[in-house]
Structure formats: C-alpha cells, structure tokens
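Problem statement: downstream parser choked on a complex file, so we are re-checking the raw output for the zinc ion run. The parser issue turned out to be on our end (a line-ending mismatch), but while we're here, posting the original submission so the record is complete.
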Amino acid sequence: MAILNILEYPDPRLRKRAEPVERVDDAIRRLVGDMLETMYAAPGIGLAATQVDVHQRVLVADVSPDRNTPVALINPEILERDGSEITEEGCLSVPGVFDKVERANHIRARALDLRGQAIEIEAEGLLAVCIQHEIDHLDGKLFVDYLSELKRQRIRKRVEKEQKIRSAEGATPTRSATPVI
Ligand code: ZN
C-alpha cells in the first residue's frame, strides 16, 4: 500500500467529475487500500478518489472512534435523504478551514462492494454527512461551495497561509477537534 498525494483547493483537478467504475478488479482494490492508508495517515474520516487525482467513483470512510471500521463504496448513489443537520466540516483538500454545512442526517445509498456486488447501506449522523461530502467530491464539488463568495475568498487566503506554514521546516498543519472529511 502507499500514501497518495492529496490535491488541495483551489486545484482545478478537484473540479473534475469522476467516471463510474466499470469493473471492480485488483487495481480498484489496490486503490481502495491506498486511499484508506492515506485517509488514516492524514488523519481524516473520509476520502474520495478525486482528492488523490483518480477520477473514478470510489470513496472510503471510517467514522469509528477506534478507527477500525473502514467503509469502501464504489459507484455510490444516494437513494433517499431525510432530516437535516448542521455540522462543522473540514476537508483534507481545504486544510485549516472549518465551517458549518447543512446536509441530510439520514441517507440510504447503494453502491458496489470490493467484490463488485451491489450493496445497500443506511447511514445517519456523521457517516451520512461524510458519505454526502465524499459524493460531492466525486461530482467535483467542495464543502466551501456551500459558503458565501466572501468566505471562499478568505478561505483561499487561509489555505495559502497553511501551505506556507507547512513548507516551513518542522511545522505541522493546524489541527482541530472537528472531523476532517
Ligand atoms: Zn473533503
């Protein structure tokens, strides 16, 4: 397995719409393994293939406190959304930025598993938020798109500052208790 490079806002490659996976083969399973390793190392609770510059509809997530319940969804599709919840979100592709986003708090989705079999999952709370956030990535959308233009301008400056801090020797990026999706 390998840790992959995560694209950062405003990289235009984050705007590409991912293509459906045609066949779940060893290459896809290897991608999922690498994405999980990258997500755990970051650390984050979710990662979409778009964020590692692979434009196929694959996402991984793990919202468990012990970080031992990985979820991998291939060609995920939301069938039903219910309720709403405002969560403070962060994103591995928008380092150091956190803001409130409103999403459904319960979803039902279908996808393929690692054997290429169709599965249906129900998710609520943080996992539901995470899956919606990752599917947005696969559609070329970022959580900052839900915010005002003024906020986005500020965020662009903030991200540039974060990138400078991290390029300085020995510095680490800003950490927060907010989950980074
Ligand atoms: Zn994200």
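For whoever reads this later: The chain has three helices and seven strands.
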